[in-house]
Structures are given as structure tokens and as C-alpha cells.
Amino acid sequence: MRDLEGKTAVITGSASGMGLAFAECFGNAGMNVVMADVEEKALRVAASRVEAAGASVLPVVTDVSDEASMDHLGEAVQEAFGTPHLICLNAGVAAPTGPMESLTTNDWKWTLGVNLWGVIHGIRVFLPALRERDEGHFVVTASVAGLTSYPWLGPYNASKHGATTIAETLHAELAELGSRVRVSCLCPGAVATNIGEAERNRPKELENETVVEMDAGDLSEFANTFSGFAKPPSAVAEMVLAAVVEDRFWIETDEVYRDAIRSRHRAIEGQDEPPARGIILNPYLER
Ligand SMILES: NC(=O)c1ccc[n+]([C@@H]2O[C@H](COP(=O)([O-])OP(=O)(O)OC[C@H]3O[C@@H](n4cnc5c(N)ncnc54)[C@H](O)[C@@H]3O)[C@@H](O)[C@H]2O)c1
Predict the structure, then answer these.
(1) Residue 141 beta carbon below 6 angstroms from any ligand 1 atom
(2) What is the per-residue pLDDT for 221?
């Protein structure tokens, strides 16, 4: 989609992190911006910031895991700006990491609800109108976790593999149908956002009865390592903008994961043992 001026972008999870950076970036490119997020106060602050920079902004409090809430988002967008052009299905959370034996049903439900069902609802709500106009672009925020299978991230990996294959499948279907609607799959490595505090948005009914505290030393070591490599969200937003304009499917933010992805694919082809070991930051540490 070469010409963005005056068109409309819908971004889920845009009160913080990458979603907020997308809103600022697309607003600067002259787009109307619909900012959807479950965190009401943060959304208000973020929307004022994007509006102050000159964009036309519609904030819509939305829970992407909820069918009716996503229907409402679709209606609010139509009413304000008509059929939108760029749909960024970006909202995401990360449940505590740990071996699967330590995880609860609530950890799985929460992570899959936001990261996977958020994408499913987003496509269900927006695809028909984009198809009818035969123009538009979906950007699905997956992760390098959607291309690898590092341990201790069961629900997150499952949700992001799901997001990746949904993006690929949608892309393939649209090509078969001869549609001009496009798809990109964003697979970031480490990005400096608030995902480390994702628990702030866990709904009450999906909280765990007993909270398993992670070792504080391990946590702070992980956080330090992570922040040492993390890209600024604004840099990712520029990559997304370029991919939309140039119509590219894969948006990779960190080449450092190429070997890990390649070795997974080789293992599948050769029927070898899955290669991922250690933690997801290993490709940075092993450089
Ligand atoms: N930060 C990273 O290193 C990284 C790496 C790869 C992929 N990602 C993905 O990027 C996306 C954006 O996350 P981020 O890193 O910017 O984190 P973030 O926490 O800064 O932003 C995520 C946003 O999603 C919102 N959100 C959470 N639950 C929601 C719900 N039910 N409905 C609507 N909004 C909801 C939050 O309020 C928040 O504003 C996520 O899909 C995440 O999995 C992040």
C-alpha cells in the first residue's frame, strides 16, 4: 500500500510499546489512527500523545480476546472512518515463563486468549470489508517465538506459532483468491516495551490461586540481558511501515535468530531432534 495519507490504521495493543510506536509512526505518515487497548487509562494518555503530534485519533477500549468487544471495535471504526486500510493485530501478553508442569490452565487461557484469539477476532471482524473494497493490509505481530520452540515459553510459543500460521494461511488464501489485500507477519526479537509487566492486564478470573514467584536473581539477570539487546519500538515501527509500503510478508527485526530458525527447519526436514535449548535470548548470548 504505497499511499498512506488520509487512510486509516487500526492498531490493537496501542497504549504501550510497539503498538504505541506504530500509532505514532502511522499518524506521522498522515493516517487516521484507531488505538485499541484494554488498559483504559494508559490508552487515554497514549491517544492524547498521538493526537498532540497532529494525527486524527480514535481510542477504543477493547479486549481483543473478547468476541463482542472486537465486534464493537469494528463498528466504532466503521462509524468514525469507514472501512480501514491497515489492521495491526498486535496486542499481546506473556505469562510467566516456566516448565509446562508448573503452568496453570489460566496461564494458557490468558495467553492464547489475547495472543491467538485477538488475531482470530481481528481477521473475522475486518477481513470482509477489506475484501469487498479489495484493498488493505493486515500486520500480525507474531514473534521469533513463532518460528522457534525455546523451552519455558509453552503458551507464548503456542500462541505465536498460531499467529504465524494464521498470517501465512491468510496470505496464501488471498493469493489463491486473486485479492489485493495483503498480509505481513512481524517476528520481533527483543524490543524495549512493557511486556515484562504484562500481568498488569491479566483479568481477575484468569489469575492463579497461588502466584509462583520466580527467583528474583534469575529475573533481574534475564531483564538485564534482555534490555541490553532490546530494540527501541520506534525502530520496529519504521520497519513495519516500510514492509507495508513495499508489500513484504516477513518483517524480521533481528537477523541474530536466522541460525536458530534454519536449524529448526533442518531438523524437521532431516527428522532430527528439535534443536532449541537454553533460553530464547541464547542467539544474542552466543554471538
Ligand atoms: N517486546 C518484545 O520483546 C516482543 C518480542 C516479540 C513479540 N512481541 C509482541 O509484540 C506485541 C506488543 O507487545 P509489546 O512488547 O509492545 O508489549 P507492551 O506490554 O508494551 O504492549 C502490549 C499492549 O497490549 C495491551 N493488551 C494486553 N492485553 C490486551 C487485551 N486483552 N486486549 C487489548 N489489548 C491488550 C496492553 O495493555 C499493552 O498496551 C505482543 O503481541 C508481543 O507478544 C514483543
Answers:
(1) yes
(2) 76
pLDDT tens-place string over residues 101-149: 999 999 999 999 999 999 999 999 999 999 999 999 999 999 999 999 9
Burial pattern 122-133, b for ≥16 Cβ within 10 A else e, equals bbebbbeebeee
The full set of domains in the chain, from first to last, is: 8-285 (3.40.50.720)
Mean pLDDT computed over 205-211? 87
Find out whether the beta carbon of 188 lies less than 6 Å from any atom of ligand 1: yes
Which residue from 37, 63, 195 has its CB within 8 A of the most atoms of ligand 1, so it is best to mutate?
Answer: 195
Rounded to an integer, what distance in angstroms lies between the CA atom of residue 109 and that of residue 252?
Answer: 27
Q: Is 13 in the pocket of ligand 1 (CB under 6 A)?
A: yes
pLDDT tier, 243 (very low <50, low <70, confident <90, very high otherwise): very high
Asked whether 140 and 184 are in contact (CB, 8 A), the reply is yes
In this prediction, residue 214 carries a pLDDT of: 63
CB 42 within 8 A of CB 257: no
- Give the strands of the sheet with 57-61, arranged side by side: 57-61, 32-37, 8-12, 86-89, 137-141, 182-187, 250-252
With a CB cutoff of 8 Å and minimum separation 6, the contacts of 84 are 7, 8, 9, 10, 34, 77, 126, 129, 130, 136
Q: How far apart are CA 186 and CA 115, in angstroms?
A: 13
Going from the Cα of 260 to the center of ligand 1, the distance in angstroms, rounded, reads 23
From CA 35, how far away is CA 57, in angstroms rounded? Answer: 7
CB of 38 sitting under 6 A from ligand 1? yes
